[in-house]
Amino acid sequence: MSTTNSNLYTIMHDRKSVRKYDPTFKMSQAELEEIIKEATSAPSSSNLQAWRFLVIQDDTTKKELRAIANNQEQIETSSAVITVLGDAEMYKNVEKIYTQNVAEGHMDEAQRNLTISNTLRIYPSAPLEVRKSIATFDAGLISMQLMLIAKEKGFDTVTMGGFDKVKFAERFELPENQFPIVLIAIGKAAAPAFGSSRLPLEDIARFI
């Protein structure tokens, strides 16, 4: 069964990492909000949704961020930079999340109570690095989904992990439980992205 002509496959292959943006093109906050909201359908560990977002649109602030992010041009010329943050205390939202699950008919009260109990037994006692690793993994899932949604809506993106995360946290006064994971520049391309090759399947996958 072939599905390579589907809209999803087209979007996947059309999405490239764009580093040259039209600095005159500005996205609205409503457009950015819609993309992020749609992206939150991504899966997450125990549905705790450990992702948080800091969206930077202000030109002066983007210039400051560029200095923190190894002078990458796209920080300043893109319409916005979406910072994906992780929340190491994601378990504190468990009651809110699973109460909403019941209200929306996804589970009953007994399953809600069991899930909350198990979450509060496991997550708070897990080492900080383990919880940060969970949040980072989940950030990867939602980041990819966000970029595909952006492409479907006609926008271009690039992810950046090369920035001073300590300075970022200080500059934007992040609470202790939150930490920056990746920056996503978003806007309209001013030049085509470079193509990129991929390793052959036999180099990366084993079937047993």
From TrEMBL:
UniProt family annotation: Belongs to the nitroreductase family.
Source organism superkingdom: Bacteria
The Nitroreductase domain, residue ranges: 14-188
InterPro entries: Nitroreductase (IPR029479), Nitroreductase-like (IPR000415)
Keyword Metal-binding: no
Protein name (Swiss-Prot/TrEMBL): Nitroreductase family protein
Extent of the signal sequence: none
Key words of the record: Oxidoreductase
